[in-house]
């Protein structure tokens, strides 16, 4: 028994070390290549530059940062309420005979490849937006956000449901005993107790939305410009790397690595912000 404990502790420690080393190697590779390039082209010119002309060695990614923020924020604005409310329904109100069909469907939604979501957006959402808002191509922030909001639903629903399920039933029963309705008990007691897990689902959803490239390429328009409305086309940080890494050479290729570091730092800041928010609310 003692040998088994030592053996499995060793396996767990090995897995943790491998995961940490993988992250450390990625960080070292990215920052070691990016920092010299970033200072050679100018930090402020790169971050706050409005123009992106690789052939003339002009590299400004500010429109792509704004495009990434707009697309991700709108996707979260649409997807989070849908996902959390779906999780509440599945956990607290849905009959078991119905949930055994809905939950596998949600899980299947999470297994669909990104390119399929992009194709769906290209042949359904983009033409729909072009018909509703005449005079636009349909490839826009709104199209990309709608596709991403569908893509993040499985993560938010399943993680939020697990968090709500883990709340002891006595919490809700106590509220019911004090005269609260089932709905008030769920929304003011159970959800409050599960907020940490729900926040984790939102963090995972943000990570999925901001890191997605393939589906966004197909529906976002890919114009390097500052958007003035949700119907304008944009290029995000991820799509810029995917679109240009195939033919980039020399300085252009090194700048795309700096682009990746910017995205990495961006996600790190978002996760840190959510982490601080979670601590403040405990």
From TrEMBL:
<feature type="transmembrane region" description="Helical">
    <location>
        <begin position="141"/>
        <end position="159"/>
    </location>
</feature>
<comment type="similarity">
    <text>Belongs to the binding-protein-dependent transport system permease family. CysTW subfamily.</text>
</comment>
<keyword id="KW-0472">Membrane</keyword>
<dbReference type="InterPro" id="IPR035906">
    <property type="entry name" value="MetI-like_sf"/>
</dbReference>
<feature type="transmembrane region" description="Helical">
    <location>
        <begin position="198"/>
        <end position="221"/>
    </location>
</feature>
<feature type="domain" description="ABC transmembrane type-1">
    <location>
        <begin position="65"/>
        <end position="274"/>
    </location>
</feature>
<keyword id="KW-1133">Transmembrane helix</keyword>
<comment type="function">
    <text>Part of the binding-protein-dependent transport system for phosphate; probably responsible for the translocation of the substrate across the membrane.</text>
</comment>
<dbReference type="InterPro" id="IPR051124">
    <property type="entry name" value="Phosphate_Transport_Permease"/>
</dbReference>
<keyword id="KW-0592">Phosphate transport</keyword>
<keyword id="KW-0813">Transport</keyword>
<protein>
    <recommendedName>
        <fullName>Phosphate transport system permease protein</fullName>
    </recommendedName>
</protein>
<feature type="transmembrane region" description="Helical">
    <location>
        <begin position="101"/>
        <end position="129"/>
    </location>
</feature>
<feature type="transmembrane region" description="Helical">
    <location>
        <begin position="38"/>
        <end position="55"/>
    </location>
</feature>
<dbReference type="InterPro" id="IPR011864">
    <property type="entry name" value="Phosphate_PstC"/>
</dbReference>
<dbReference type="InterPro" id="IPR000515">
    <property type="entry name" value="MetI-like"/>
</dbReference>
<keyword id="KW-1003">Cell membrane</keyword>
<feature type="transmembrane region" description="Helical">
    <location>
        <begin position="61"/>
        <end position="89"/>
    </location>
</feature>
<keyword id="KW-0812">Transmembrane</keyword>
<feature type="transmembrane region" description="Helical">
    <location>
        <begin position="6"/>
        <end position="31"/>
    </location>
</feature>
<feature type="transmembrane region" description="Helical">
    <location>
        <begin position="255"/>
        <end position="277"/>
    </location>
</feature>
<dbReference type="Pfam" id="PF00528">
    <property type="entry name" value="BPD_transp_1"/>
</dbReference>
